[in-house]
Amino acid sequence: MVATTLGTHPGDDRVPDLSPDGQAAEDALARDVLDRLGSATVADDDDRRCARLLRERLEAQLAVGESGEHLRAVRNIFSPHQQVRHLFTLMPTATADDWAVVARRMARVPEAYAGYIASLTEGSRRGLHAAPRQVETVVEQLDEWAASAWFPTFADGAPDDIPTALRSELTDAATTAQAAAAELREYLATTYLPAAQGTPDAVGAERYRLGARASTGADLDLAEAYAWAWDEHRRIDAEIRREAEAVLPGADPLTAMRHLDENGPAVEGVEEVRAWLQEMMDTAIADLEGTHFDIPVPVRHVEAMIAPAGSAAAPYYTRPSLGFSRPGRTWLPTLGETRFPLWGLVSTWYHEGVPGHHLQLGQWTHLADQLSTFQTSIGSTSGNVEGWALYAERLMDELGYLTVPGARIGYLDAQQMRAVRVVIDIGMHLELRVPADSPLHAGETWTPQVAREFVGAHCGRPPAFLDSEIVRYLGWPGQAISYKLGERAWLAGRDAARAARGADFDLKAWHAAALSLGSLGLDDLTDELAKL
Questions:
Q1: How many structural domains does the chain have?
Q2: Element (H, E) at 268
Q3: Residues 436, 293: one domain?
Q4: What pTM does this model have?
Q5: Which of 199, 230, 264 is the C-terminal boundary of a domain?
Q6: What range defines the domain where residue 120 resides?
Q7: What are the φ and ψ backbone dihedral angles of 306, each rounded to 5 degrees?
Q8: Those residues with Cβ within 8 angstroms of residue 146's Cβ, 6 or more apart along the chain or in another chain
Q9: Across the 532 residues of the chain, what is the mean pLDDT of every consecutive 10-residue run?
């Protein structure tokens, strides 16, 4: 999976070993690297940051592995079943030789899913289960894969002029892969789900801290983060109410957003919205290059894509391969829709594309040979990456780019969702009380039902999206909080650098230096940014 993501072995037809033995081998490699790291020579600040990152990331990985989380890894986003399928969307497909590699790898999908089933079976034997809510959601996703015949449909995308024998091989491999996905679905629905009954959604403080460190690179004060996020929610609520008044006098935020759904600017058609998002990112690159950023030539290309059926509801980004043979790509799940109001898309694509994920991860790819592959790719933390993307949304608001009618309420709605995420993610998993000044369920314990009602009252995204979000938070504890806490770290670092330099502070130069650090955990990010 790493090789395919980085684009370093384009002829690789292997699939990941998702079995318990595979995890054991990966953990053994981590321990070996940690042993050798102790005697490594640290020559400069780049080395210092890399060594610290490497130690923290590997120790976090080992802690998660030792807890057995890989034996109950069932969730609606970035789950092993999706990671296997995702490999094919990253592979080269320009030549007949490329498609021959696709065919060989598709034929081995049963091997990957058999290893995954072996891990889940071992977890079940130990009493380590995913909650039924996660299992049911993944079964639904696999049903969508079956309905869309995803693997055969992907194979049908091969050019008409490939050799007949290869076409037959592709067809057979795709049929085999689709059957393996169906077998995984049956295992989850008929064997695993009954055994998982009674498993709670909440993971508790110990597992939550493991997940939070894995996503943020920090040992967090969860009580402080919860209280801060609640204050941030209340601050944004006041601001978004003022913005709603500007959109539709007398309206509350949700009414204003529904008004924009029906009456605001929108794009009709799936291909049309893809093209609109592409043009938006191309324009942002042209405007920002040389003014607020120095954008290397290879990073000036990014592709807007439509996410495959059976994906989670949230848009996402895939980074470029090393050397940029595969560009960075943003992905829009359509959820069956064909009309796309723009008020909620503008800020999101500044987050996913430019100046968000694409500028940061594209710059890291550009610098991979100067820093290290680890610092610029697989060593990344969600807190750093998602924090930058939220900072990018805020920056575009500061620079006056949210000019599409309703785009600023869309930005504030996204900010609100990220603040509420921190509150309900920590609240549900630690089973905390809803704050006393809440207009809903004050003093009650956070449950998925309470959280869904709360987020539905304060966030204007479609119901299906919000349903998916609650499942996501429950299945990936500690990841959702990384966005807002990461943005807080980025803003604190910028403020400290500005205060230190005074009139000499240059935002464009700071951006260039900040995006050239490579990955950092939140334990280190603010301090390193403050020095720039």
A1: 2
A2: strand 266-268
A3: yes
A4: 0.94
A5: 199
A6: 2-199
A7: -100, 130
A8: 178, 181, 182, 185
A9: 92 96 96 95 93 96 95 96 95 96 98 98 98 98 96 96 97 98 98 98 97 96 98 97 96 97 97 98 98 97 93 89 95 95 97 98 95 93 97 98 96 97 98 97 98 96 92 96 98 98 97 97 96 96
